[in-house]
Amino acid sequence: MERILFRPVKPLRINQAFAQNDACVSTDGKNRVITCDGNKPPVGFKSLYGAKGHLGVDLYATHSQPVYCALEGVVYKVDTDAKSGLDVRVQSTVDGQEYRHIYEHLLGYQPKVGDKVNAGDLIGWADNTGYSAGDHLHFQVEKYVSGKWVPIDPMDIMSTLYAQDIRSWKEILARGAELVADLLRKK
Questions:
Q1: Other beta carbons less than 10 A from residue 92's beta carbon
Q2: Phi, psi for residue 165 in degrees, rounded to 5
Q3: How far apart are CA 72 and CA 102, in angstroms?
Q4: Could you tell me if 122 and 64 are in contact, meaning their C-beta atoms sit under 8 angstroms apart?
Q5: Which of 25, 47, 106, 143 could make an S-S bridge to 38, C-beta 3.0–4.6 Å?
Q6: Type and span of the H or E element at 170
Q7: Average pLDDT over residues 86-107
Q8: b vs e for 14-43, b when ≥16 Cβ sit within 10 Å of the residue's Cβ?
Q9: C-alpha dihedral over 163, 169, 171, 174, to 10 degrees?
């Protein structure tokens, strides 16, 4: 499978894998989250993720650590809800295939709805908003297949390169191109 995503946080350490189902939330309205078998939750709890399990990957991140855009696209939604906390959602097209990449549990965010973002642009800062047991980044990717958005494991299409480094490389290449152009104009 083609590696189209860059790593949104550095270093990349997975706290919870795609499809894992080991977190439960209390049914008493207090939203207590515990570690459990989500397929057989204890009395008074239900799976936090439902039958499909965790629909993204939870990546280690410290409080207020910068989170970078993994793939060029357009911000289609920024919102806050009880489960995901503050999140930024980006839609991208690669070779005619539509993808959505979602950055959840943020402290704050940089882009606005409608903004074009490039790989390596600052998306926001990691936090513990929503249903969360500590600072991290929930990174979710969906692929548009047969008229519906299907969650996929981001690790299957993620490069070994970090998004924050891509911006630096682009700037270095642009400066190099400017220097070459200046040299050619002086001849």
A1: 20
A2: -80, -25
A3: 13
A4: no
A5: 47
A6: helix 163-186
A7: 97
A8: eebebeebbbbbeeeeeeeeeebebeebee
A9: -130
13, 162 Cβ separation under 8 angstroms: no
Asked if residue 111 has a cis previous peptide bond (ω within 30° of 0), the answer is no
**What domains, with CATH codes, occur in the chain?**
5-15+58-186 (2.70.70.10), 20-53 (no CATH)
Half-sphere exposure of 85 (CA within 13 A, CB side): 23
Distance between CA atoms of 168 and 139, rounded to whole angstroms?
22
CA 28 to chain centre: 30
Q: In the predicted model, what is the mean pLDDT of residues 118-124?
A: 95
> What's the whole-model pTM score?
0.84
Q: Which amino acid is at 152?
A: I
Average of per-residue pLDDT values in the chain: 91
**pLDDT score at 177:** 67
Phi then psi for residue 114, to 5 deg, are 95, -15
According to DSSP, residue 119 is labeled T
Question: What does the alpha-carbon distance between residue 63 and residue 7 come to, in Å, rounded to a whole number?
Answer: 18
Determine how β-strand 73-81 pairs with β-strand 57-60: unpaired
